[in-house]
Amino acid sequence: MKQLFPLLCLYLVAATASAVAAQPATSDSVVDTPCVDVPLYGNAYLTAGEARDLRIDGEGLRGWSDRAQVVSVYFAVAEPGDLALALVGRNDGSPAAIEACVGGKTFGIDVRNAATAAIPVGTVSIERPGYVRVDLRGVACRSHFGTYEALRLSGPAAAGGVTAIPGGEAAGDWPYWGRRGPSVHMGYSAPAGETIRYFYNEVTVPEGEDVLHTYCMANGFSGGYMGMQVNDRDPALRRILFSVWSAFTTDDPSSIPEAYRVRMLRRGEGVHIGEFGNEGSGGQSYMHYPWEAGRTYRFLTEVRPDGPERTIFTGYFCGHDGVWRLVASFLRPEPGKSEESHYTGMHSFLENFDPEQGYRERRVLFGNQWVMTTDGRWIELTEGRFTTDNTGRSGIRLDFDGGLDGGRFYLRNCGFFDGSVPYGARFTRPATGRRPDVDLRALEAIPSAQ
Q1: pTM, 2 dp
Q2: Is the CB of residue 42 less than 8 Å from the CB of residue 359?
Q3: Residues paired with 150 in a beta bridge
Q4: Burial class (CB in 10 A: 0-12, 13-18, 19+), 103
Q5: 281 contact partners, CB below 8 Å, separation of at least 6
Q6: Which residues, listed in sequence order, are joined to residue 62 by a DSSP beta bridge?
Q7: 66-116: per-residue pLDDT in tens?
Q8: Structural domains in the chain plus CATH codes
Q9: Residue 172: partners with Cβ closer than 8 Å, 6 or more residues away
């Protein structure tokens, strides 16, 4: 039989790779220190190769038999120091070799145990706190490379605190939301004492940041949102999305009473109209548009009352051809409401909506925000407030960021980078004085497509 050379490769993310030094598999500094298990479900991703039969779920990493597959595990340490690693798993008594390295150095492990056990890997020295990436690659096996539940950490670096998605009974929905990564938001300060009808925003996704299953939401409002998505690897299938929540609270659109159903009034050419659920429910519209990274796109959203119990929401989009398009106009009934609704809650956000893509970093720029009041005056908005969702606020993911870049607001998330921005941080961009060049009467006159 050909000799097996099993190696386990641990790669620190680029920001910390140079700060890691390989040591022998045991170290006096890690003996008898508490262990921390990082569950693979919630913290591991397939980062190379096709999934085929490979699964990462509540049973751990399983169905792994292709040498082209790379599984990456991510966690963060709060303190520098020695860090010992072991894989918790088994291979049903069939020998297997797993490969790779830490900062260019290699470790070896021969997996033969039929019962689940902690299989020693080696010790690394972490010189800076932050995210650590562990890559696992199979070298040789008879049938598969084993089934693994967790990466076990010990030593001073682990004792100082480890950030990872929890497992076991305490996990709840965290493996799903944690693998998706934190959503990040920029809220825009409305002018005091003004009643708003329109909100205008300009959106640019930098080149290389148009990652699959990204939603760059441009124009948010109290009751819905509008933006652009990467829904498919085919650029022609990218979407401009506009959604309005029903005033009836439910995650099941079929349960909305007729009196509360969001109704379409107008739709643009080629726009799909439907419903959405699972995050509240309501009316949804989208059009396919091949938007491109590196280009700037313009969004305009209108909110106006139709009496105290009904509100009309309309979304327009301007592509790189300079043509403004109607996406849709919706009527939202609000039975029993005594006051009229106008535009409130101006904000943007960036999210990943696929848990398999949460290891990939995303970034988007928002610039030149304006509102129009109900008496027809344009007012520029220059103040933004950064927030993140519960995935970031809870502290199980630390890769969230936002601020100013070249006179525009930016949002950044996922990718396990170091250096997050505090929740609620405020930023002020320089005013442009560049009022939106929009013919509102022409937009309002666009007929509904048949």
Answers
A1: 0.90
A2: no
A3: 39, 88
A4: middle
A5: 245, 246, 248, 250, 251, 252, 253, 255, 256, 275
A6: 55
A7: 999 999 999 999 999 999 999 999 988 678 998 745 556 677 778 888 899
A8: 17-166 (2.60.120.260), 180-444 (no CATH)
A9: none
